[in-house]
Amino acid sequence: MFKKNVGTTDRMLRIVLGIALLIGFVLYREASYGWLLLIGIVPLATGLLSSCPLYSILGLSTCPLAKR
After folding, report:
1. What is the DSSP string of the chain?
2. How far apart are the first and last CA of the chain?
3. Could you tell me which of 44, 43, 54 has the C-alpha nearest to residue 5?
4. How far does CA 4 lie from the centroid of its chain?
5. How many Å apart are CA 34 and CA 16, to the nearest integer?
């Protein structure tokens, strides 16, 4: 479906960052900036799918299999 272009380390960092931002949203929902923490959906989704649309546009890849 999607071309894998996110390596293991990059993937784990994206998942951790996404979860942290979403936890921040749950904890600070009443804050005026709370809705901004929903951006955590993006790194979480790209980490879980191992595919980043921005990497595809820029022709980048951190996946070692894609470099072969």
Report:
1. -------HHHHHHHHHHHHHHHHHHHHTTTSTTGGGGGGGHHHHHHHHHT--HHHHHHT----GGGG-
2. 20
3. 54
4. 13
5. 18
Per-residue pLDDT of the chain (68 residues), as tens digits, is 678 899 999 999 999 999 999 999 999 989 888 899 999 999 999 999 999 999 989 988 898 864 45
CA dist 44 and 4 (Å) reads: 15
Query: CA 10 → CA 5, 6, 66, distances in Å?
Result: 10, 6, 14
- pTM above the 0.70 mark? yes
